Amino acid sequence: MTVSIIIKTLNEEKGIARTIDHALAALSALPDAIAGEVILADSGSRDRTVEIASCYPVRIVQIEAPARPSCGIGPQLGFQYARNAFVCLIDGDMDLDPEFLPNALAYLDAHPKAAGVTGHVEEMMLGNLEYTRRVQRNAPENRTGAIDRMNGGGLYRKSAIEKVGYLTDRNLHGYEEFDLGIRLRHTGFELYRMDRRFVRHYGHNVNSYKLLVRRWKTKYLFGIGEVLRAATGKPYFGQMLKELPELKLWALVWAWILVSLALILFSPSHLAGLAIVIVLFAAIVALMSQRKGSFSLGLYTVVAWLFHAAALPVGYCAGRRDPKAWVESRPVGGQNDRSQQSGSQDVVENGVSGHAGARANSPGSRLG
């Protein structure tokens, strides 16, 4: 068995050295019979991410124009260069648990219908309201057993990914793991979360409201609209509607927004209408504060609802490119670059499927 660890990055200079150290340590802890490689898939970092990674025995690839950064493009970028039978996907701000890979490989070996296996994502930045909210609610990241998606990454069987055409949709700025999960499950595969840690996640140590604004600017919030657009006309579209309970919430938020606008615009007294809207907003915040046990978390939750609901139609109307098309990219830096240039050229010329048979004998595929 062979493993390709894909680290997707965009301006991760603060923690990328730690992330690579943990990835290399995880590979070196595997039995000698298991080969491995680390691929840093960079979406155009403008900081020292690539420079720092170049000091390590890893393979570095970076997008080129017209490719543009998105949550979906990084994993697919790494996947199209991966040579091994299993791909482990992590972010550039995650520490891979050294005991995860042996357990995950054993699970996939024992369960041939499983396309992927993951574990718990331990959030380390709980001072941020967004990550606190994620830990508290019944999020997909917290469920064990059979799951519908592998949020945060995990270990995938490459042959299963090839059967559904591609790892992640380059057009998606969010929900890329859910899109992959529903495509795999519709094809007959399964996903599973073990009750053990997969990674530590450090996230963004920034003001929660600034993070919301940044996620709007980077189009991350548009993800749910984009994934609905991607599934429109597909045989699993109805299943997607059933499996996204947040759609009901966003519909209620939109009803609230429209009622509030109607009160302001069509009330005999605009001032009275505005007063009712303010009282309604305060009541909703008070209710959520009581449920969350904190006014700050309750207020943030309601504001986040408004951002997400507003982003849905914007994402749905966004343009799309063929998700199966080659991601425009080039190898850069890295200690393994020279030994892998010929292999990279074969990938560029032949595409993902063209190099699959040669991956076992490719130079630089063994680390540690």
Name of the CATH superfamily of the largest domain? Spore Coat Polysaccharide Biosynthesis Protein SpsA, Chain A
> What's the number of structural domains?
2
Major β-sheet profile: 10 strands, mixed
- Mean pLDDT, rounded to whole units? 88
Can you describe this structure?
With 368 residues, this protein is an alpha/beta fold. The protein folds into two domains: 2-206 and 322-361, Spore Coat Polysaccharide Biosynthesis Protein SpsA, Chain A (Alpha-Beta Complex), CATH 3.90.550; 231-316, no CATH class. The chain has 14 helices and ten strands. α2 links the parallel β2 (35-42) and β3 (59-63). The model is unreliable at 338-368 (pLDDT under 50).
Keywords:
Spore Coat Polysaccharide Biosynthesis Protein SpsA, Chain A; 368 residues; alpha/beta; globular; 10-stranded mixed β-sheet
What's this, in brief?
It contains 14 helices and ten strands. It is of the alpha/beta class.
Topology:
Elements: E1 2-9, H1 16-28, E2 35-42, H2 49-53, E3 59-63, H3 73-81, E4 86-91, E5 94-96, H4 100-110, E6 114-123, H5 129-136, E7 145-146, E8 154-157, H6 158-163, H7 176-186, E9 190-201, H8 208-217, H9 223-231, H10 237-243, H11 246-266, H12 270-292, H13 295-316, E10 329-331, H14 337-354
Parallel strand pairs: 1-2, 1-4, 2-3, 6-9
Antiparallel strand pairs: 3-10, 4-8, 5-9, 6-8, 7-9
Helix pairs in contact: 5-13, 8-13, 9-13, 11-12, 11-13, 12-13
